[in-house]
User: Fold these one by one.
Assistant:
Number 1:
Amino acid sequence: MAGIIQLGEKNPKAGVNRGVAVVDFFLRIVAIIATLASAISMGTTDESLPFFTQFIRFRAKYNDLPTFTFFVVANSIVSAYLVLSLALSISHIIRSGSRNSRVVLIIFDTAMLALLTSGASAAAAIVYLAHKGNTKTNWFAICQQYNSFCERTSGSLIGSFGAMVVFILLILMSAVSLSRRH
Amino acid sequence: MAGIIQLGEKNPKAGVNRGVAVVDFFLRIVAIIATLASAISMGTTDESLPFFTQFIRFRAKYNDLPTFTFFVVANSIVSAYLVLSLALSISHIIRSGSRNSRVVLIIFDTAMLALLTSGASAAAAIVYLAHKGNTKTNWFAICQQYNSFCERTSGSLIGSFGAMVVFILLILMSAVSLSRRH
């Protein structure tokens, strides 16, 4: 909005906002790595059991369960969004006074947080079922056979839940920046 | 922060903020009803099948599946939070200039959005499984037997997903209010 580059030394509040913008930039990079790692580790999960009958080869892939496919898609979308958002994040480091773009970031960050949480929680519900099973519904714990499949899918949740925490921090920092500015 | 009550007629920006605060208040009431309805309709789901053997009575309750228990807990927590947040929402209608409390609301709204999304998505993943089953993992579709149980649990998701949309709107409006004020 204001085309003038404000220098931190002249305006202490702008200096604080620039510091927040730099932290914002690095948190976004952390979140990119976390979501990308989640998507890749889930997307490459594929276990074949060492024994097989004449007709059936026992094999577990991530896309046997639609929820895991959704998890990979959600993480990929969030990861791509984060790469694009880096441009706005850099512009906030240079022009610490802009506020319209901060509002845009808050809105998209919130939507992406919802998408990421949705994918991670749905996958967590299925992973829990795979580990524990459910006697009432006769759903058996498949982890007894597909051990490494279960470990891989459980592990890939970590990146997503980490990125969720980062997103909450990002929204918090954007809100503080918006309230500080005057 | 500013102890002075600003009147909308004197300051057009404060007037717009007051309008936003009134909408915020009503959206919160809508979200309370939605999450409460979700929690109650899921929490009272209990189906007994009309046939039974000598030893087993076929019965499906929501807490047979831990994910549904989490769904009820998450919706109840969010609903309780929303009732408490009405106090801050009312204070924003009266004092449309306050900004610290708006930042507090954004942060808590974001955290509650994450909790609600998490509960709703995990429950949706299980409901999907109950409807479709999964042949690869030998998890059978229980909806063929427990018809009304499945309809009830599927229906109770609607309130939660509606409340998620309301939360995203609330965060958006808070962000716009913060950026408007000067």
Number 2:
Amino acid sequence: MVPGTPAPGDVWAALHSVRRSGPLVHNITNYVAMDLSANVLLAAGASPAMVHARDEAAEFAGIAGALVVNIGTLSPEWVAAMLDAATVARDRGIPWVLDPVAVGATSYRTRTASDLLALRPAVIRGNASEILALAGAAGRGKGVDSTDSSSDAVDAAGELATKTGAVVAVTGEIDVVTDGRRSVQVAGGHPLMARVTAMGCAASAVTGAFAAVVDDLFLATAAALAVLGLAGARAAVDAPGPGTLRWRLLDELHMLDEATVLEGTRIS
Amino acid sequence: MVPGTPAPGDVWAALHSVRRSGPLVHNITNYVAMDLSANVLLAAGASPAMVHARDEAAEFAGIAGALVVNIGTLSPEWVAAMLDAATVARDRGIPWVLDPVAVGATSYRTRTASDLLALRPAVIRGNASEILALAGAAGRGKGVDSTDSSSDAVDAAGELATKTGAVVAVTGEIDVVTDGRRSVQVAGGHPLMARVTAMGCAASAVTGAFAAVVDDLFLATAAALAVLGLAGARAAVDAPGPGTLRWRLLDELHMLDEATVLEGTRIS
Amino acid sequence: MVPGTPAPGDVWAALHSVRRSGPLVHNITNYVAMDLSANVLLAAGASPAMVHARDEAAEFAGIAGALVVNIGTLSPEWVAAMLDAATVARDRGIPWVLDPVAVGATSYRTRTASDLLALRPAVIRGNASEILALAGAAGRGKGVDSTDSSSDAVDAAGELATKTGAVVAVTGEIDVVTDGRRSVQVAGGHPLMARVTAMGCAASAVTGAFAAVVDDLFLATAAALAVLGLAGARAAVDAPGPGTLRWRLLDELHMLDEATVLEGTRIS
């Protein structure tokens, strides 16, 4: 095991800390993702808020434990609020997570992601196509679903981490987390999760909750993905389809106990 | 029992009236709450509509049986539409419900809630932190989840009701409903309901449906909360987590029959 | 059987084609419908994207397999984006579906629907009240739920199809699909589906997915409605309420196999 690899006990400690602290997570996320993100955060023990008006986003970011900015559904007003809120987060040392949904699909998205990147997100989470596009490599994404595999994006993720100072997570069949020096793989989840909308966005939201309470953001990110993957894998057992998976995931996340996390964490 | 306390038979009559009339409930509510609010209204027998454009909100309010204004996710255009629609509702005697989500958390929210309050909502529903903040007391809310208990807010609710002429509901472990003269407690629900996003918003939406068909708004509000609490408590039986609770709540609300309501109503 | 009536084998071939191609479906749809629409599209095998900013809607429409425009929740910016995207779709021969939610309820809605109609949608799907209103007949709709039956709207649908060149679908207890020359009835579904919000919007979204991969849009529309109705009817078996129905619908849609489609399709 690579030195610095989070142990199952670290993952449990991180989840326990989220539950105990109930961190306020400020989300500026897309319309499709709001419901699942809020419910996943509540099931994980955090306290979600969705605040995007330019008149209040910056003020609200200042009282949050973490900020999650997801560019899934954009508009000029929202982009302005994202930049305002991210600036406050950066200036005050509040960790903020960038989810560059479908970056590369339109020039507006690419420009917005680039402007946000300049505000130094603490964590970046995307699928392989998005991370490749963000790193300037040749993403071949179509819309929001990845057409590249995580492993293709590993090099791009490392470069992106080194260049930006962020922890970068590429999620897919196997998740990869890197800070440019350390790099781990997080196994878990289930293919059916890709048939539930906004599951990747929910992963970003949960990462925000963990980043709010765990100082080591590399650990926070790996732990968040491990926990969500574990809940998803358990939810998928005998699930006939994505409808069942979605609600069971929330139940499993709510019920995860120490033994299950210690036994089920797969970080290497 | 205090005179004027709604009896179980009143609660059932109110639910039956919602189902028979299928009132059109106009919601200007936050993005996170729209799905659950619409589904709870449909499960209760009402007909929900979400209409927030300034070009049509006022016109639409005029054809609705009730209006629900929820400030969860704000923007200048929406605030203008909220004020337009509430003005129409007030002028035409259409009952309207104010849900002051996270009032006190930012100055924009506090200002907006104050402007809406001046348009004389028929009912105000919030958690303890929100009612305290709205009444000018020292709310200690963080985001949308209450950090105060309902009982702390009882005095504030009474003052708010007297000052505004509205029925005020403080929801939490025990709900309190007051019109400044009468005051009742509504028991029911389950702690797991707080782990499902927008459950409070859904309570406001259902209150709108009951206010559309029951003239006595004190009764309408207590009955709406009793019905939702009863459905929630039944949904929580053996529920492993919030995922299950959410869909079962809709089933239970849809299935509630006279015997169950008469037996399960807890208003005192 | 009328010549040109889609056979069960055609319906299965169409669903199989959606699953194999995973078409990118660009939705500009209302806030309430986004979650269910995206999940229904994923369960059907398509790849949904929700993109509504004026800065990117037209560009995105150009890379999509189909466009779905739903006027459920309007704002001036969105209407502009809808018109931009529909223009691109029309000019490039990308099939686009119009869902005229609650047209007739406000003048803003009626005006917007009329502007969109001028951009020649390939398919129009609405409930009876909406189709009557769109055809200029006397819709008596209240909000988004139909107060007319499908059969009342059959003549209006035929006229609308002839006038616009679109395939027109009127959904309700029995769905009717016509292109002005051919006309079929699609049986299936369950009354409980009307107690789940945005089910009609989801039908429009699925129609978009089928229109992206089946050249004959009359067949594509009938097949989409047959598939959704079949999944809904199966989901409703022993369902205690709308909560259960909603998630089971996604499971059933995901699981539909050839034998079930061949046996369960009811187009006449």
